Amino acid sequence: MDLGISGRWALVSGASKGLGFGCADALVAEGVNVIVVARTADAIEAAGERLRSRAAQGAKVIAVAADITTQAGRDAAFSAVGGPGVNLDIVVTNAGGPPTGDFRDWNREAWIKAVDANMLTPIEMIKATVDGMAARGFGRIVNITSSAVKAPIDVLGLSNGARSGLTGFVAGLARSPIAGKGVTINNLLPGKFDTDRLASTLGAAAQKSGKPTDEVRAMQAAQVPVKRFGTPQEFGAICAFLCSTHAAYITGQNVLVDGGLYPGTF
Predict the structure, then answer these.
(1) Distance (Å, whole) CA 22 – CA 24
(2) CATH T-level assignment (fold) for domain 9-191+231-256
(3) Where along the sequence do coiled-coil regions lie (predicted)?
């Protein structure tokens, strides 16, 4: 299927590995020019090289080492295409999840840091780009959040709170007048994907239960109806579809991608 987005410009944050890289990889395979951003210069440059080797239809890949949670970092990313969001057609927001733990151990600073990275930063990225998208008549914004928004996990309290705030904000904005100007905003809620973030969560669960990490990993994989963890490539393919011309009638949605783990009907 031709997704109809070849030649478009996209920005993907947190793209040096994991789900962010998976999304960038799927987009460049469709001929989308991609700006990939992450904090560590060596890691994002290496990711950029991998993406260039996979790019189709002459797609360009620009790697930017910056902290997207800061204004300076966002400016650096946006300047790669001529200024704050001027030519961006697609924005995929993604930031590393806050640490796991017990809410009793988190002070105000920990909460502010979580909200800044996982709620306010995506909002700032949307604010910088959405009006330009509307003016050009096409825009796709995909926020990578978490299945914990729908089914909270006790040790992920910081993530539960911050990402739920973003979800509520998007629910209103996606249904505002921008929806009639070709701009869609959706959230992708990953379940258990085989990433460094999952390894951290499994480690926390192992410590809490007193069981070996390998045992916890096997137990959690067995709980997923498809009997395995997801891959970044699978996640990226769904992201690319939401960014496509075929997804123009999908907006304001929380797309749960968890191998069937969530047991509810709605």
Answers:
(1) 6
(2) Rossmann fold (3.40.50)
(3) none
